[in-house]
Specification:
The chain is mostly helical. It has helices at 2-16, 23-29, 32-61, 71-82, 92-103, 113-124, 128-141.
Length: 143
């Protein structure tokens, strides 16, 4: 019984004192090459997820003659596409520079990295109003 109480106390003490690192602090702690590698990884993961999902949907409904792709699948692909800027191509240095600018504002310190990449990518694709809306939502959510 005492051992359980000690373990619970130790666990609460450990988790209570755990230091939370803001996404902006993590981002700013990296050099230019790791930042580019991180963005490249997000781009690659997004592409892999979309490709795998399309393949699974095709295999599941291949033999169903009346199947029509529902809207939520199209919306899922649209959201995935927003994570990758199509207009700038593979100029990932530009994305990382805009990420630096985004995280220089104190209001954006707690926005997760992948969400920040989505905001920057949407902005780079010329959809400024949508990017601003995503940014405002993220600022409210991650205060």
């Amino acid at each position: 019984m005492k051992l359980k109480i000690i373990l619970i106390f130790f666990g609460l003490f450990t988790f209570g004192n755990a230091q939370k690192v803001a996404p902006a602090d993590f981002w700013n702690s990296m050099g230019d090459k790791p930042k580019i590698a991180f963005v490249n990884g997000v781009y690659a993961a997004t592409s892999a997820i979309k490709s795998h999902h399309k393949r699974q949907v095709r295999e599941q409904y291949l033999h169903h003659p009346g199947w029509i792709q529902p809207y939520y699948i199209e919306r899922f692909y649209d959201i995935l596409n927003e994570h990758v800027s199509t207009k700038i191509g593979y100029n990932l240095g530009l994305i990382t520079a805009h990420m630096d600018a985004l995280y220089s504002n104190y209001d954006n310190q707690n926005i997760p990295l992948v969400k920040a990449i989505r905001i920057v990518s949407v902005d780079q694709d010329g959809e400024r109003e949508k990017a601003n809306l995503l940014l405002l939502k993220a600022q409210r959510r991650y205060k």
